[in-house]
From TrEMBL:
Biased composition (Polar residues): 477-495, 531-544
Region (Disordered): 159-194, 472-499, 526-545, 691-751, 865-895, 1109-1140
Principal location listed in the UniProt entry: membrane
Domain UDENN: 32-642
Positions with biased composition (Basic and acidic residues): 742-751
GO cellular component: membrane
PLAT domain sequence ranges: 993-1100
Subcellular localization: Membrane
One Pfam family linked to the record: dDENN
Alphabetically ordered keywords of this record: Membrane, Repeat
Protein name per Swiss-Prot or TrEMBL: DENN domain-containing protein 5A
Taxonomy, superkingdom: Eukaryota
Organism: Patiria miniata
Length: 1326
């Protein structure tokens, strides 16, 4: 919302009048921009000025005449005739100073009849010149190309109900175009907009009206009260009869006699013909936002509001466009309020004057509002710069053009659903949603606004122990109000406070005692004081309130409900942000500021690693924004200075958020916060803290009756500039509120016995408050319950993690629900990290740093280093090169030595991660690494069995010193070893990882190569570049940013040297941090003239079990590996597998079904599609067997046959008939199938020249499946003479029923979007 700088003691600082000076003539407006000669004179803006303002100056808020004039009339002064619309228009505005403080304004523009003949004559002259210019333009007809701007046209009304064109992408609403939602280029250098036909001014028959604006300037944005005041002033000057008092009396009253409104208070003051009530939220509530959220949602709709919020949070450029100034300010201010607790840090100009259009070229984030000329029709065009990051919002037509690649707000569908429920409760009808939201059981208050609930809250019942004076929520930062009584049952007619005071026996006795103390003189005095706390009409029954009060309360409640909902979503996202703040090491704020530019204040890598994967597209750019950086800076500055109000409120919301609650939407918490906020608003509405003095005559002389309906009178400056004398004592200025506070305290003390009251007074004087003292037994019971709660929570969390990981298998075993919560694995692990922190924090002697777990680990390392010096070999990296080969030479299969499982080995790996900056980040990385290595139980057991360390760090009652509970805790952690986690690998994307590679050459004669070999490793996150394998050393290490879970390896050589051919048995690749080892089987020759002439091969990997599980695997207690490389040792080439056609069909059906099942699984439970395509018994291998079956020449040319040879012959034949009559036959789809088949074959031969024939066939099948063309190509193959000559009649290509089976089976994959890894299609562009 921005700071308002030095606060004055006034509700309003200035009253100003803007318009045309009496002696002036119509001159071109200084704010209307250039090139207005083509605009009709009745639609132009003219020069305006501040005619008067009162008072002359206010300390702390200088009156900026030019700025206020520009913002009151941004387009300039306008002129109308009686034929045009002359309804008064209200809009608000703000001015931002260099120090970031803001001043707000409320302006009402209306029209007065022009009385000066010079104005009418000047309009005639301008019209004559306009006609001459129009005729000259038509004759010259100058049009020249221009490419400097993007022309956005007004939106067509034929768009769908959301504002999207059917052809437009999801992330972008339509642009502003009549024909297409996309931006288009215009070729006119000077754009002449189309205008509505305007009748010329006829001085004989028409009346000319000139705009005038009255304005209130304030430092706190009480927009609606000021709007009502200005509208009542306008009604008074338009009234046929003069008001009861001169306008000067009302203006003087609001300027000098209405005080500023402190937080948590309610104020009433007078306007011409009505009483205005306004309230301000307490310091513990959300800051004041007096703009109508109802109108904002009705203009934009729920979905567009969510998209606009996302753009603002990611600091995109936002341009608002409307024909009304009020809407521009409304949307901009509502958007700023919804950003809470963050503040927009960049250019913020909700109303951009026409002469400042060049601001749109600024290469920085901004929120700007651009006013469209009322004279232009809907087909006019607007020139604005083109930016990929620009969010263009047409408020009037409810359309939005979003930036490119805008991510979705986390849990967007839940937010939309909850927001819709809130709006339905308040009978708000936003723009229709484009997607259905799930329904849920309505809670109390849904439907119409629940005034009966307010009636219940206000019911007062007499009796002892009740607070008879107050019905307003206590403010934590002040003692203005006492806590209201709760739980009273509603009555049909609530008794008045006066009846209670007069008829209650107990009150009478208390009043007698108070009389003797001199606090009051009679009960009637309490009645007088009580009269100040009723509603404006003196009735506490909301059903009998005047409509204005009911409307105000409902609007404030809706504003608060929407803002609380958005704030709760930000709390869900950032509730753990404080643990990742990097606290400064400097002891003074000056030194911190000096080094601020060179420091990192937030551990972004650790924070993002704890977030659900679906949130990351939004959170990655969000944590890089300036508003987030400022928020973190303010958090750090609070170490030396008092917290900002926004930070206090946000932190208090986090404190009330359940610690054990997963990051899923919690509707109950939202509803509770919204209900509390509404209760505070309702209670303030019926308890007015201060009523300002009524307006009065300012002079003893009778005022001149200068009332003339329709004209704003000339105000008496000598009266309004004479500021009444006020003492400079700030306590005297707050006297009304202090008096109310004393009355409130007296009413609280009336119910206490004299001894209790005296005791409270003495305690207040001494500043001591008695603290509850727990007995030793109470402490023990409380601690025992806490320990039991931690243990129970550990059991629940580990079970959730297992059920989530096991998926449907756990449900079938009875360990989970079919309708699981769907909480992501990453969120569950983050929750486990939080639990471990709380366990290691319980009963600690002295906490060092923010992470008790990491502090314990560091303490263990320090103590162990003191006890002994560890042998170097236990923590060293396994030996390299020849030493590895020498050790493994005696073994049957070469292998890598296992990584150390020592705790300190993992600690050093975590400490080497440069992107982690905090102890909390180190602790979470340590937990994730240990969990992935299945060493979490082992590491924590090692820490907890060090009794000397535990005794030194923890008190006797600590959780970690309770033997039985500690054993159960470790047992629950041990259960996590039953499943595989990749929580470290998948979380730290930018971490540099060392990978050890072992290339195992076959034992066949001359299997080694003299060529220069290379390898390329691919994972789910990244691909390594081509890495040269060192000569005479097949075991080497390379470093690369995290590749993720490894999927494939491409290996090859340059075919140089005396013996270039190379036969690789398999390749092992190990992550040197996590210890995950992947095996990539090969078993094929690589080289020209051998095997299939391949110089490179693609190998598909499998994850090997940890070394500790090797024995179990050997005994058959572990499931066999899921897949092997598709490049296995070929059987006798051309020899058909020992399978009949039924067996082959069954194998192919299984391969297709596996792919179908892959896409029907939840995304998190899917395996790797590459394995299903290229792995053992995958689709490629099955198609190879299908096309080998029934090959006629296999008996003669069995050693030289490759399917790729057959495909090339078919492509050659199809190319030869392409120009013949035979090639012109067939349907369009058949011709397309032939063309795409030949094109694919040629592209593979060109792009994958280094691959062998089997590798090319693998690529052919994968591309055919990806593009859904394989089942179209098979009939093309079968219809060629090549197939008839090379295949038997019983083969799949020559048997009609078998071919139909293949086509129908492969067609089942058309509905799935199949994407291939870059390692498969590398070098081939299709």
């Amino acid at each position: 919302m921005g700071s308002t700088g030095q606060q004055t003691n006034r509700f309003v600082d200035y009253f100003a009048v803007c318009g045309l000076e009496p002696s002036a003539v119509l001159q071109p407006g200084q704010f209307s921009g250039e090139n207005t000669h083509h605009v009709h004179p009745l639609l132009r803006g003219y020069k305006s000025a501040v005619l008067s303002h009162y008072p002359t100056a206010v300390e702390g808020n200088t009156f900026e005449s030019d700025g206020i004039n520009m913002l009151c009339m941004p387009k300039g002064l306008t002129v109308r005739t009686q034929k045009q619309d002359r309804e008064p228009k209200f809009h608000s505005f703000l001015m931002t100073r260099e120090d970031g403080s803001r001043t707000y304004g409320a302006a009402l523009t209306f029209y007065e009849q022009a009385t000066s003949p010079r104005i009418c004559a000047g309009m005639e002259v301008l019209q004559i010149k306009y006609k001459e210019d129009s005729l000259h333009r038509k004759l010259s007809n100058i049009e020249s190309p221009s490419r400097s701007h993007v022309i956005l046209e007004s939106l067509s009304p034929k768009m769908d109900r959301r504002g999207f064109s059917p052809k437009h992408r999801r992330s972008s609403s339509p642009g502003i175009s009549m024909q297409s939602p996309k931006m288009r280029r215009k070729t006119t250098p000077v754009h002449v907009p189309k205008q509505k036909k305007v009748a010329n001014f006829d001085p004989l028959n028409d009346t000319l009206y000139v705009a005038k604006c009255i304005c209130l300037i304030m430092q706190v944005p009480f927009i609606q009260p000021c709007r009502r005041f200005l509208e009542s002033v306008y009604s008074a000057i338009n009234s046929p009869s003069a008001p009861a008092l001169p306008l000067e009396s009302y203006i003087f009253n609001i300027l000098y006699e209405v005080p500023s409104l402190p937080p948590g208070r309610t104020l009433s003051f007078s306007a011409p013909g009505e009483t205005i009530v306004c309230q301000r939220p307490a310091s513990t509530e959300l800051p004041l936002c007096d703009n109508s959220m109802r109108e904002c949602v009705e203009l934009l709709g729920v979905e567009h509001l969510m998209e606009l919020m996302t753009c603002a949070l990611l600091e995109s450029q936002i341009l608002l466009v409307s024909r009304e100034y009020h809407r521009l300010m409304l949307v901009a201010e509502c958007l700023s309020a919804l950003l809470f607790p963050f503040q927009w840090q960049h250019v913020y100009v909700p109303i951009l004057p026409a002469n400042l259009m060049h601001f749109l070229d600024a290469p920085v984030p901004f929120i700007m509002g651009l006013h469209l000329d009322e004279g232009m029709d809907q087909t006019n065009q607007l020139e604005i710069p083109s930016h990929a990051a620009l969010c263009f919002v047409d408020i009037d037509n409810n359309c939005i053009d979003l930036p490119e690649d805008l991510p979705l707000f986390p849990n967007r569908h839940h937010v939309v659903h909850d927001l819709t429920q809130v709006l339905q409760r308040f009978n708000v009808s936003p723009k229709p949603l484009t997607e259905k939201t799930p329904t849920r059981t309505p809670t109390r208050g849904e439907g119409s606004f629940d005034w009966s609930f307010l009636k219940t809250e206000l019911t007062l019942i007499g009796g002892s122990g009740r607070n008879l004076e107050s019905s307003i929520e206590a403010d934590q930062d002040s003692s203005y109000f006492s806590s209201p009584s709760r739980g009273e049952s509603p009555t049909s007619i609530p008794p008045s406070k006066t009846d209670i005071l007069r008829n209650n026996e107990i009150v009478s006795k208390v009043a007698a005692i108070v009389k003797r103390t001199g606090v009051i003189t009679s009960i009637s005095e309490l009645e007088d004081r009580n009269s100040n706390t009723t509603s404006p009409d003196g009735d506490t029954n909301p059903e009998t309130w005047n409509p204005e009060l009911k409307k105000d309360v409902e609007e404030l409640s809706l504003n608060s409900a929407i803002r609380e909902l958005f704030l709760s979503k930000m709390v869900e996202l950032l509730r753990h942000y404080e643990t990742f703040v990097i606290q400064p090491t400097s002891h003074s704020i000056e030194s911190w500021f000096a080094n601020r530019e060179h420091m990192q204040n937030f551990d972004k890598a650790s924070f993002l690693s704890d977030q659900p994967e679906a949130y990351l597209p939004f959170l990655f750019p969000f944590v890089e924004t300036q508003m987030f950086a400022t928020f973190i800076d303010n958090k750090i500055i609070s170490n030396w200075e008092e917290k900002e109000e926004a930070l206090k409120i946000f932190d208090s919301r986090i404190d009330h958020f359940p610690a054990s609650n997963p990051q899923t939407p919690d509707c109950e918490i939202d509803q509770l916060l919204i209900s509390d906020a509404e209760a505070n608003i309702r209670q303030r509405a019926v308890n007015i803290d201060y009523t300002a003095p009524s307006p009065h005559e300012l002079t003893s002389k009778p005022a001149d009756n200068n009332h003339k309906p329709g004209y704003f009178p000339k105000l008496q400056e000598e009266v309004l500039l004479k500021e009444p004398f006020t003492p400079k004592n700030k306590h005297r200025n707050n006297a009304p509120w202090r008096r109310k506070e004393r009355q409130q305290q007296h009413s609280e003390h009336l119910q206490l016995a004299p001894q209790e009251r005296e005791q409270i007074i003495q305690q207040a004087r001494k500043g001591t408050v008695p603290q509850p003292v727990l007995s030793h037994l109470d402490q023990k019971q409380t601690n025992w319950k806490f320990v039991e709660g931690l243990l129970k929570e550990c059991k629940v969390k580990t079970k959730k993690m297992l059920v989530s990981k096991m998926g449907q298998e756990a449900v079938e075993l009875g360990h989970g629900d079919v309708n699981r919560s769907g909480v992501e694995e990453n969120t569950l692990i983050a929750s486990l990290c939080d639990l471990l922190e709380r366990i290691f924090s319980h009963g600690i002697q002295k906490k060092q740093g923010k992470s008790a777990l990491w502090s314990h680990v560091m303490g263990y390392r320090k103590m162990k280093e003191k006890r002994e010096t560890l042998p170097e070999h236990s923590l060293s990296v396994p030996p390299q090169g020849s030493e590895v080969r020498r050790r493994s030479s005696s073994a049957a299969d070469p292998a890598l030595n296992p990584l150390p499982t020592d705790l300190l080995f993992d600690v050093r790996n975590v400490e080497s991660m440069s992107q982690i900056k905090t102890d909390v980040g180190n602790a979470r990385a340590f937990v994730r690494l240990a969990l992935e290595r299945k060493l979490l139980h082992k590491h924590l057991k090692l820490l907890l069995t060090d009794y000397e360390l535990c005794k030194k760090r923890y008190k006797r009652y600590a959780f970690l010193r309770t033997e039985e509970e500690k054993e159960q805790f470790l047992y629950h952690l041990l259960s996590l070893n039953a499943v595989d986690y990749f929580c470290f690998t998948n979380s730290f994307i930018s971490t540099v990882v060392s990978y050890r590679v072992l290339v195992v050459t076959s034992r066949k004669f001359q299997a080694a190569t003299s060529a220069n070999t290379w390898i390329c490793v691919s994972g789910e996150m990244n691909d390594s570049k081509m890495i040269s394998i060192p000569k005479n050393s097949q075991d080497f290490v390379f470093q690369h940013s995290n590749l993720g879970i490894l999927t494939t390896v491409r290996i090859g050589h340059d075919n140089t040297g005396l013996l270039p051919r190379w036969m690789v048995d398999y390749i092992l690749v190990r992550n040197e941090i996590t210890g995950h080892t992947y095996k990539f089987p090969c078993g094929r020759w690589i080289g020209r003239g051998v095997d299939d002439d391949s110089l490179e091969r693609l190998l598909v990997g499998e994850l090997l079990p940890p070394p500790a599980e090797c024995e179990e695997q050997a005994r058959g207690s572990r499931t066999p590996p899921r897949s092997t490389s598709p490049i296995l040792s070929r059987q006798a080439k051309g020899q058909a597998p020992k399978l009949d056609r039924d067996g082959i069909q069954e194998m192919l059906t299984d391969a297709v079904n596996n792919i179908v099942k892959h896409f029907y699984k939840p995304e998190k439970e899917r395996g790797r599609l590459t394995v299903l395509l290229c792995g053992e018994r995958g689709l490629v291998q099955c198609m190879e067997i299908v096309l080998q079956y029934g090959f006629r020449s296999a008996r003669i040319f069995r050693n030289n046959f490759f399917i790729w040879d057959f495909l090339e012959k078919v492509a050659k034949y199809l190319d030869s008939i392409d120009q013949d009559d035979e090639g012109r036959l067939g349907s369009v789809q058949e011709k397309r199938a032939r063309r795409t088949f030949c094109f694919t074959i040629h592209q593979i031969n060109q792009g994958a020249a280094q691959a062998g024939k089997d590798g090319k066939f693998q690529l052919f099948v994968c591309i055919g499946i990806r593009d859904h063309m394989l089942h179209w190509w098979l009939p093309v193959l079968s219809e060629t003479p090549v197939a008839a000559s090379m295949y038997e009649d019983f083969s799949f290509l020559n048997c009609t029923s078998a071919l139909d089976f293949l086509v129908n089976l492969l067609m089942q994959l058309d509905e799935f979007p199949i994407s291939l890894e870059s390692s498969i299609t590398k070098g081939v562009e299709l």
